[in-house]
Amino acid sequence: MKITVFGSGYVGLVAAAGFADAGHKVHCIDIDEARISRLRKGEIPFFEPGLSEVVHRAHQGRRLTFDTAIDAAHKTSQVYFIAVGTPPLPDGKADVRAVHAAAQTICEVAETPAVVGIKSTVPVGTCDAIQALVDTAGKKHFVASIPEFLKEGSALADFMKPDRIILGVAHREAEKILRELYHPLQLSSDRVLVMDRRSSELSKYASNAMLATRISFMNEMARLCDTLGADIHAIRRAVGSDKRIGPSFLYAGPGYGGSCFPKDVSALAERSKEVGITLEVVEAAGRANKKQQSYIRDRVFSMLKDEAKNKIVAIWGVAFKAETDDVRETPALPVIQALIEAGCTVRIHDPEAAENFVKNYSLNVTIVNNEYEAAQDADLVVVMTDWRHFRNPDLEQLRNVMRTPAVFDARNLWTPFSLNSKGFHYQNVGSNLTDRTPDA
Ligand code: NAD
Q1: 28, 107, 260, 344: the active-site residue
Q2: Which of 44, 109, 419, 434 could disulfide-link 424, Cβ–Cβ 3.0 to 4.6 Å?
Q3: Average pLDDT, rounded, for the chain
Q4: Which of 218, 283, 224, 275 is nearest to 252 (CA)?
C-alpha cells in the first residue's frame, strides 16, 4: 500500500519505518528541512533503540523516502497519516494547529480519495473538525482517528507488536483500508478495536490519564511511607499482586514527565472544562505530580542540609526516563534549576540526553561522559533517570571520588541496606527503612 506520513518525530518516524518494514511504500514528510536532510543521509534525529537499522533497511530498499513536500508519486497515497506535534498551549489545552496545517496540505495535493488517519493525540472532536475541513474543500477523504500507544524507549517494538490498534472510523471504506494496512502487524491475534472517532480520541487521553493517575497515587503512598516509616516496595507488591489491579505502573519516583503525560493530563482536563465537566481525579493526578517534583527537590536540599551554595551536585540522568534522549518535561529540570539558583555547581551525566538538555534549557551545567567523573569531589549524587548502567555502580570507586559520599536516589534503584553498609548517606523515595535487605 502507498502511504504518506506527516511528521518525522518519535511517532511519525517509527510509524513510517514500521509500515515500510512491513512492506508498504512510505513517504515521510516533515517541515523541518534540517531533519529531513539528516534522514536522507541516514542519520536518525533522536535516540530510539533499534530504529536506525529499520529506517536504514527500508530506505535502502526504497520503501521509505523523506521529503519536505509530497512528491508526485505520493499524491495518490491510499492513507495519509498525521503524526505531528500537539504541544501544550499556555492555558493547558492542546495546540492542534500543526494537525490542521497537515490536513490542509492533504486537501491541496492529494489527487485521489484517501484515508486521513490522525495519529497525533488530539482533543475529542478534532477528527470531526478535520472531516469538515475536507468536506468544505470538496474532497472525498475519510478522516479516521488512529491514536498511537507506543512508548519511547521501546517504540519500534510497541509499534510492531501493539497491545491494541484502535481504529476510530466513521466510514466502512476507511475501516477496510486500515484493517488491510495493519494486517501485517497483527498476524498472531486480532488486536483491532473498531469504534467511533470521538471514543477513539478519548481512549488515548483516558489511557494516559489512567497511567498518570497510577503513578501519582503511588508517589503519594511513597510520601506517606516516608512519613509513617513504611516501605513503598512492600506496598507496591501487596497492591500489585491483586489481579484486579495488576503490577504495572506502580513504581514511585520523581514524578512523571515526557512529552505525553503532563500535556495530555492537562489537555484532557481543559477540554472537559469546555463542556462543563470537572475531572477531579485527572486534575488531582496533575497536581500530585507537581507536588512530587517539589517533594523531590526538597529532599535533595535536605540532603545538602539546606546549604547548597558552593556545593557540587552530580545528576545521574536527565532524560525523562531511560532509553530515550527526550528531555521534554523531565523531572530532572526543576531539581537542577533550583540547585543552580541556590549557587550549586551542577554536573550532569546522561548517556543520550545531556546535550538535548543543555540545548533545550540553556542552563549553566557541565556535561561529563561518565557517572564517576560527574561525582568527582561532589557533595551529593542525585539519580534522576533509571538508566541500566546506574544499577550496579562500583560503590567503592564512587565513595572514593566523592567529597561526601551521599546519594539521593529518586528512582529507587538501590536500598538503604546496600548503600549505607558501604559508607554512604543514602535516601530514596518511600523506601528508607534501614533494616530492609536488598531482596526483601
Ligand atoms: P515530535 O515533536 O517528536 O515530532 C513532531 C514532528 O512533526 C516534528 O518533526 C515537526 O517538525 C513535524 N511537523 C510539524 N508540523 C508539520 C507539518 N505541518 N507537516 C509535517 N511535519 C510537521 O512529536 P512526537 O513525540 O512524535 O508526537 C507526535 C504526536 O503523537 C503528538 O500528538 C503526541 O502527543 C503523540 N504521541 C506521542 C508519543 C511519544 O511517545 N512521543 C506517543 C504516543 C502519541
Answers
A1: 260
A2: 419
A3: 95
A4: 218
